[in-house]
Amino acid sequence: MRVIPTLLLGEGGLVKTVNFKKPKYVGDPINAVKIFNEKEVDEILIADIYASEEGRGPDIDFIKEVASECFMPLCYAGGISNLDQIRAIFKIGVEKVSLNSSVLENLELVSEASKIYGAQSIVVTMDVARNFFGKYSVYGRRGKKNLSLDPVEYAKQAEAAGAGELVINSIDRDGTGKGYDLELIEKISNAVNIPVVACGGAGELQHFREAVDAGASAVAAGSFFVFVGKHRAVLITYPDIKELDRLFGNN
What we know:
Elements: E1 2-10, E2 13-18, E3 21-27, H1 29-38, E4 44-48, H2 60-69, E5 74-77, H3 83-91, E6 96-99, H4 108-117, E7 122-130, E8 136-140, E9 145-149, H5 151-161, E10 165-170, H6 182-191, E11 196-199, H7 205-213, E12 218-221, H8 223-226, E13 227-228, E14 233-234, H9 241-248
Parallel strand pairs: 1-4, 1-12, 4-5, 5-6, 6-7, 7-10, 10-11, 11-12
Antiparallel strand pairs: 1-2, 2-3, 7-8, 8-9, 13-14
């Protein structure tokens, strides 16, 4: 079972948000990657959360620096809007790209990239929250714009377009530590045949298990790996492999 730290880039460093708001600086991304190397992390997801909103493309030089330090499979997200950028990212050693804003209303880029690089390299991330009436919807612009897209239907469309994996990011649970949105994970996992990665809300190890029981193929988290204690002191951690084996019944 993959347990994936998610590192958010913004405001000149590594940040962590709550409900996609109030970004808090938590450190240097390169140092974080080096620490995760030592902890033998399964995989890592790095996302520039401001790139698309600011109309910026991926910072290839910076991604290259990260990739050169990263000993585990790396997925990059943020500002990707065309095949040339995807080609450049793969060329410097990144294993996967995650597409979000650029494909929300047109999944053609997913189809084109998947045909060239294979579905296993193309991830679609969707940011989901409940609207005023309690109904799930896909959001854009870092959670600021309700696109009135049903996440289950969008997940099916992304799979049909050629996505090899879906990251389901709950805006409501982001940074809260209250656990994943299990209802959302179950709905989407039951609707598609590709791996679903749960993201948003992990606050304790048991939350990983709950997400897997709900149908997730892997779990991703941010705050869980960078904060400790009730005062949320910054300290990068990662569960011991024996803890994860016991959690997922691998003994």
